[in-house]
Write a structure and sequence with these properties.
The complex is a heterodimer of chains A (about 325) and B (about 260).
Chain A: H1 9-32, H2 40-71, H3 83-96, H4 105-128, E1 129-130, E2 133-134, H5 136-159, H6 163-173, H7 185-203, H8 206-212, H9 216-222, H10 226-248, H11 254-266, H12 270-299, H13 306-329
Helix pairs in contact in A: 1-2, 1-12, 2-7, 2-8, 2-10, 2-11, 2-12, 3-4, 3-5, 3-10, 4-5, 4-7, 4-10, 7-10, 8-12, 11-12
Chain B: E1 2-12, E2 18-28, E3 32-36, H1 43-50, E4 58-63, E5 66-67, H2 73-77, E6 80-83, H3 95-100, H4 115-127, H5 143-156, E7 161-165, H6 173-190, E8 193-197, H7 201-207, E9 210-215, E10 218-223, H8 225-228, H9 231-238, E11 240-245, E12 253-259
Parallel strand pairs in B: 3-8, 3-9, 6-7, 7-8
Antiparallel strand pairs in B: 1-2, 1-4, 4-5, 9-10, 11-12
Helix pairs in contact in B: 4-5, 5-6
The chains are: A mainly alpha (about 325), B alpha/beta (about 260).
Chain lengths: ~325, ~260
């Protein structure tokens, strides 16, 4: 293995600034792409939509990376563990219940999404506990089962929706970055603050995730407050996932594909990976959503939800990783 | 000077079933002490209590004069390092990177290394003989080499006490010797105390300054190897007939003959 130079503040700052500039460049480029004439109004709509796509990518990729580090399982990510579908149940409850008179929508939807994500997260975590230790395979299995259960709850909520709501619910359920976000500044700001604060939290935990790779006992002896870190990170990832789901519905596999690609290129150091996976996740979803949006515009069909594209790419990717992991265990 | 003191320690996984029943232990600086005893006698449980993974129901643990329960996680890590039985890393870090994680408790919020940290890491690599494979991954190393990496990582913590959980249990004869010698040298050079949990009585007796014999959740005997290796004591603690062979050294060789009914 080639010697990797030690991570210094200068190197980390260079990676950060370089990737932020690249992210801004991709965002600006994506706002220019599309069939319709680029009027200031069209640009404004696109700018907010592409920004939302970037936020979603940042939240899901850095959240997936943190979960993988936390449970030492490369297959963990918010979608597979059911956290996204739990947040989805919350969002649909917010849309279905007559709460508008009591609270604004920008508060109810993300609020209930956080509750749904947190409940799912701790149910899955609780099931996977074996004598105080986390069983990585039971964790995945619990995630799959809770995902199915949450899917059934979402279908039940569909039954109570009006016919005109069902079309938007279906698009949302497939993971679609919304056009209408510009009309909901409260929701956009709430999601931005939640995701940015969560990412900042994760940036400060990179070296703790590295230490956790050697096992709970060693990490604890190094000074990592393991149990507190687990609870805090699950809460933060649930918050970030809930914000992403409140914007676009459950967009799957971003938290799997991006961190793995980043590890191949940048190595295993979470201090760098939280920065890199977050920003490359933003770039990945911005490009994927722009591809979905423009493909729909050019062929004159309804646009393809970005969640469909990420699932088409992520499903086979997950199987390859699973096979590699089980082969390694044999 | 005593760096680690355990007094009247009690712990049970359930209140009815106590695993530790009043453990007393003192560990002086610069000395190597091995805890021996049959399976289930509470050795590993004691280690977990020392690491803060279990909260004792009674008794005190003092580290460098301060109750261990009053120390924050990072403060404890600056004093107490741990080497596990099976070295592992879930991610593809190099040996140098793993050893540098020993500086975690000494770093700021972003976990970046100072020049002094990097120097200490190189010293730990050099001192443990792991520098020659510092750029390889843990998975590419032999069991003995991997265990040396874990000791280097613990040394980089600059602890006053190093806890080692059966560090030689999966190693061949040569590596068992090398690991024990390395631990003993480090205790001498760095003035650090080492507490080893082990099973090989003869190996431990030849390389430890002190032995602590565990039986039924308490220390049945503690002292120099010559003081502890007494046939009636071993017979009672392990439930086996033992022979002690004089091989012309101050410490006899212990041989288990047959289990007692």
């Amino acid at each position: 293995m080639a010697r990797r130079p030690p991570l210094t503040a200068t190197r980390l700052a260079l990676v950060f600034v370089g990737l932020v500039l690249l992210t801004v460049l991709v965002w600006a480029s994506c706002t220019m792409v599309g069939r319709y004439q680029l009027t200031p109004q069209v640009w404004h709509f696109r700018a907010v939509r592409v920004f939302a796509a970037g936020l979603i990518g940042l939240a899901l990729a850095s959240g997936g990376l943190a979960l993988q580090g936390l449970v030492r399982n490369p297959l963990a990510e918010p979608y597979i563990l059911g956290i996204s579908s739990g947040a989805g149940v919350g969002v649909l409850l917010g849309r279905s219940l007559p709460l508008d008179a009591l609270l604004p929508r920008w508060l109810t939807e993300p609020g209930l999404a956080v509750v749904g994500a947190l409940v799912t997260c701790f149910v899955v975590w609780g099931i996977a506990q074996r004598r105080g230790r986390l069983d990585p395979f039971v964790l995945l299995l619990a995630g799959v089962i809770v995902n199915v259960f949450n899917g059934a709850l979402i279908l039940v909520l569909f039954l109570f929706a009006s016919p005109e709501d069902i079309a938007s619910f279906i698009g949302w359920g497939m993971g679609q970055v919304p056009d209408w976000l510009i009309t909901q500044p409260g929701l956009a700001w709430t999601a931005t603050i939640c995701i940015a604060a969560g990412w900042l939290f994760l940036l400060m935990r990179g070296s703790a995730f590295n230490a956790l790779g050697m096992g709970d006992a060693v990490a604890s002896s190094l000074g990592v407050p393991v149990q507190r870190l687990r609870v805090e990170t699950f809460v933060v990832v649930s918050l970030m996932t809930a914000a992403a789901v409140a914007l676009a519905g459950p967009v799957g596999f971003v938290g799997l594909i991006v961190p793995h690609a980043c590890r191949l290129i940048f190595g295993p150091d979470h201090r760098v990976l939280v920065v890199v996976a977050g920003l490359l996740g933003a770039i990945f979803v911005m490009l994927a959503d722009t591809a979905c949006r423009t493909a729909g515009e050019w062929v004159g069909l309804a646009e393809i939800p970005v969640g469909v594209l990420t699932a088409l790419a992520g499903g086979p990717f997950f199987i390859v990783l699973l096979r590699r992991r089980t082969r390694g265990i044999e | 000077m005593t760096v680690l003191a355990v007094e009247g320690l009690h712990f049970g996984y359930t209140p009815e079933q106590l695993v530790l029943r009043g453990v007393d232990l003192e560990l002086p600086a610069g000395r190597l002490c091995t805890i021996l005893g049959p399976n289930g006698s509470g050795k590993t449980t004691l280690l977990r209590c020392l690491l803060g993974q279990h909260q004792p129901s009674a008794g005190t643990i003092t580290l460098a004069g301060r109750p261990i329960a009053s120390l924050a996680a990072k403060d404890r890590a600056r004093q107490l390092a741990y080497v596990p039985q099976l070295p592992s890393s879930a991610f593809d870090f190099t040996v140098r990177e793993l050893v540098s994680m020993g500086r975690y408790a000494h770093q700021g919020a972003l976990g970046l290394h100072s020049a002094a940290d990097l120097e200490l890491v190189e010293h730990a690599l050099e001192r443990t003989g792991t520098l020659r494979f510092a750029d390889r991954a843990l998975g590419e190393l032999s069991g003995g080499e991997a265990q040396c990496v874990m000791i280097a990582r613990a040394l980089a913590q600059q602890p006053s006490v190093m806890l080692l959980d059966e560090p030689t249990s999966h190693l061949d004869l040569r590596n068992q010797l090398l690991i024990y010698r390395l631990i003993r040298q480090l205790t001498r050079e760095h003035g650090m105390a080492a507490l080893v949990v082990g099973h090989d009585i003869n190996l431990a007796a030849r390389h430890s300054d002190q032995l602590a014999l565990f039986g039924e959740g308490r220390v049945a005997a503690r002292g120099t190897p010559a003081e502890v290796l007494q046939a009636p004591l071993l017979r009672e603690t392990y439930g086996v007939e033992v022979d002690l062979w004089d091989v012309g050294e101050p410490i006899p060789v212990v041989q288990a003959r047959e289990p007692l009914d």
